[in-house]
Amino acid sequence: MTYRSIHHPGDASRALVAARAQSGPVAIGFLILMVASLSAVLQGVSVLRPLLIIVPVVYAVAASAGLYTVQKRPAEAIIEGGRAALPSVWEASGDGPVVLMPVHSVLPRREGLVVGIGDDVTTLRPEDWPDFEHVHRALADAARIAEIEGQTISWA
Fold first, then answer.
1. Which residues are CB-contacts of 135 (< 8 A; sequence separation ≥ 6)?
2. Residue 119 and residue 102: Cα distance in Å, rounded?
3. Residues in a beta bridge with 120
4. Confidence at residue 156, expressed as pLDDT on a 0 to 100 scale
5. pLDDT tens-digit profile of 30-71?
6. β-strand partners of 105
7. Alpha carbons 105 and 121: distance in angstroms, whole number
8. How many CA atoms lie less than 13 Å away from 126 in the CB half-sphere?
9. DSSP states along 13-66
């Protein structure tokens, strides 16, 4: 079964996904930078030389933050038997294969559903998943199947 989050890129290319991810953080970073430089200019401070250094740094940090978010935010949940995968928005926009790993745990918490798949622990927030109850039920079933099949690790 495959469930899509509201962040799924659909048919968008990776270039478009990257551009969308960077646009918000870069806009906020440059807005803050423009307000600060306007304030400095109105006080009579020379800002040209500092801006030549600060602008590329602000862009690099903001673009990196946007791309990091896209590479960590789950776009879909793919569940088959006792195995599952939570490909990120970046991975869902490409054509690469999805590796299904055993589902170790599914724990409902106040902030969302904490899911242990393979080596990763991810929190799925209800507001990001239109079929959150179905995703929760399917992942819980997958964890039970993985435990029955002996795919999970027991720490006891």
1. 3, 77, 113, 124, 129
2. 9
3. 117
4. 41
5. 999 999 999 999 999 999 999 999 999 999 999 999 999 999
6. 116
7. 9
8. 7
9. -HHHHHHHHHHHHHHHHHHHHHHHHHHHHHTT---HHHHHHHHHHHHHHHHHHH
Mean pLDDT calculated for residue range 88-113: 91
Contact of 132 with 5, CB cutoff 8 Å: no
Furthest-apart CA pair in the chain: how many Å? 72
- Phi and psi (nearest 5°) for 154? -100, 125
Please give the structure tokens belonging to residue 135. Answer: 């995703």
Cα radius of gyration rounded to whole Å, the chain: 21
Report the C-alpha gap between 97 and 106 in whole angstroms.
24
**Residue-wise pLDDT tens digits, 125-146:** 999 999 999 999 999 999 999 8
* Of residues 78, 86, 101, 88, the one with CA closest to residue 7: 88
- The whole-angstrom separation of Cα 42 and Cα 8 is 44
In this predicted structure, the answer to whether residue 17 has a pLDDT above a threshold of 70 is yes
Which residue is associated with the tokens 């423009």? Answer: 34
152 pLDDT higher than 70: no
